[in-house]
Design goal:
Blueprint (H helix, E strand, L loop, with lengths): L6 E7 L4 H4 L8 H9 L1 E6 L6 H10 L3 H4 L5 E2 L9 E2 L10 H7 L4 E6 L10 E5 L11 E2 L3 H9 L14 H25 L4 E6 L1 H13 L15 H17 L6 E6 L3 E4 L3 E3 H7 L27 E4 L4 E5 L15 H14 L11 E3 L1 H4 L10 E4 L6 E3 L8 E2 L9 E4 L1 E6 L13 E2 L3 H8 L13 H6 L1
Parallel strand pairs: 1-8, 1-9, 2-20, 5-6, 5-8, 11-16
Antiparallel strand pairs: 2-19, 3-4, 6-7, 9-19, 10-18, 11-17, 12-13, 13-15, 14-15
Bound molecules: zinc ion (ZN).
């Protein structure tokens, strides 16, 4: 297969939202908008659930969360009731796009991509992303690169600690520092290392959205006109666009550039206490007196009388307590289907405080994914279609709360993120069709003349344009 471009640069913007870059509330972003005007842009549909882990792993493998056996930041590792374990790079067994490029003799540089810690060997170099311990000295491949980076640009940052905080002033400053640190690393490597594939991810945009949405979006129900952080979004997006422009000036013209996000974002308007609902309806039984709210993990659960429990988060995962599957299962195996149907119907029909349907979306993993490796949830629940966050804590008088239980949070993720590309990536003058997160890896392979494995779910945009 011939190469269509000499090199590919992927600029990942975690949580980038079309509305602020190309849509109705777009800021003045000459570099991103110039790239899209000369090339093209469209929406990029995330995976289910639209969450950072596993979304970047889905994008870089072309496989869905079920095939990866990675359903969120934290996952069950067996059928016991043990606490969920945080996912890392070792959970991803499918080859990443840079593994396939490496087999074809091409060199990659990867910077700050979520779920790449601990670093694994590749033909090229890698700096790991969020979930890297801040004191780690083993955040690069090769290991010696860590000291080289410290020498060249100073300490490398991996995330914003405790971004769910009320100290917005300090947080905004840290966000901008983090942005510049990430692009300093990228600029250093893009000039000093050989590469045919370069991919970096800015994580600050996600933290910005969660921390400042209600300050910046007049449509947010908690927006207060004249608040001191009204310009926080515009300031960050503008600074980001400046750094993108500087990075683009460092790459040769024969580079194909893709701008991608792992998911979009939207205003978060409150929470649905999913475990409290399960308790109220008799599906989940805890022995605690629940005079105050507490995490479900801190409760004593009466598993012999429990049929279902759930995780909190931007999306909820519901698990059934199944006989001969879980240690103290109560739902007979041949009743899984009917019980799931009952829960699905009841959750989908759930009404809000105003008596109107909440519009909860319920997904069955075995109908959503090609296969379900690891320990999949039995249901995925998007509370009020992502308008509400799933609250995992218990001890509430009502199943509806105004605030998140793990700290202030103004935004939820949304399905549609951003895709933009330079003209040399596109094969037709027609506007880009909406894309899927699984299309990114095949597109990169196609551009660099490497065969697309059948295990990848998506299609190269070149192939879809030709079809
Ligand atoms: Zn994300």
């Amino acid at each position: 297969m011939p190469r269509r471009v000499e090199r590919v640069l992927v600029i990942g913007l975690d949580c980038a939202t079309p509305r602020f870059i190309f849509g109705r509330d777009a800021f003045n972003l000459p570099n991103l908008q110039g790239l899209a005007e000369a090339g093209g842009w469209t929406s990029l549909r995330s995976c289910d659930p639209p969450i950072t882990v596993p979304a970047w792993a889905c994008m870089t493998t072309g496989c869905d969360p079920g095939v990866l056996g990675c359903y969120g930041f934290r996952n069950r590792v067996d059928q016991s009731y043990a606490p969920l374990q945080t996912a890392d790079s070792t959970n991803i067994r499918e080859p990443r796009v840079w593994d396939l490029l490496g087999e074809a003799g091409l060199t990659s540089v990867c910077v700050g991509i979520p779920q790449t810690y601990p670093p694994t060997p590749l033909n090229g170099c890698l700096v790991s992303g969020i979930l890297t311990p801040q004191d780690s000295t083993s955040f690069t491949y090769p290991k010696s690169l860590a000291a080289e980076l410290e020498e060249a640009i100073g300490p490398v940052e991996f995330d914003i600690a405790e971004y769910r905080t009320d100290d917005k002033q300090a947080l905004l400053k840290r966000l901008h520092q983090f942005l510049h640190n990430r692009f300093d690393v990228a600029e250093y490597l893009i000039q000093s290392k050989p590469w045919e594939f370069f991919m970096m991810v800015d994580m600050g945009l996600d933290r910005l959205h969660h921390a400042f949405w209600k300050c910046c979006d007049p449509d947010h129900p908690k927006y207060v006109a004249g608040n001191p952080y009204e310009q926080a979004f515009e300031q960050y997006y503008t600074a980001l666009d400046d750094r993108i422009g500087a990075l683009l000036r460092l790459v040769p013209d024969d580079t194909g550039v893709l701008v991608v996000s792992d998911h979009g974002a939207r205003a978060l308007e409150g929470g649905l206490c999913i475990n409290q609902w399960l308790i109220d309806e008799g599906y989940l039984v805890v022995e605690d007196d629940l005079l105050e709210t507490k995490r479900l993990e801190d409760c004593v659960i009466d598993w012999d009388r429990t049929t279902a429990w759930a995780t909190g988060g931007y999306v909820s995962r519901v698990y059934l307590n199944v006989v001969d599957r879980e240690p103290n299962g109560t739902v007979p195996f041949d009743e899984i289907e009917s019980f799931r149907n009952i829960l699905t119907t009841r959750l989908a029909d759930l009404e809000g405080p105003d008596g109107h349907s909440l519009g909860n979306i319920v997904q069955l993993p075995d109908q959503t994914y090609r296969e379900c490796k690891g320990i999949p949830p039995d249901l995925l629940v998007y509370c009020s279609g992502l308008r509400l966050r799933a609250i995992g804590s218990v001890g509430y008088d009502s199943i509806f709360v105004a605030e998140n239980d793990t700290g202030p949070d103004d935004a939820n993720h949304d399905f549609d993120g951003v895709f933009a590309a330079t003209k040399n990536v596109l094969v037709a003058d027609a506007p880009l069709e909406p894309m899927n997160i699984f299309d990114v890896a095949p597109t990169v392979l196609d551009l660099l003349g490497v065969a697309i494995p059948e295990t990848m779910h998506g299609n190269s945009i070149a192939a879809s344009a030709a079809a």
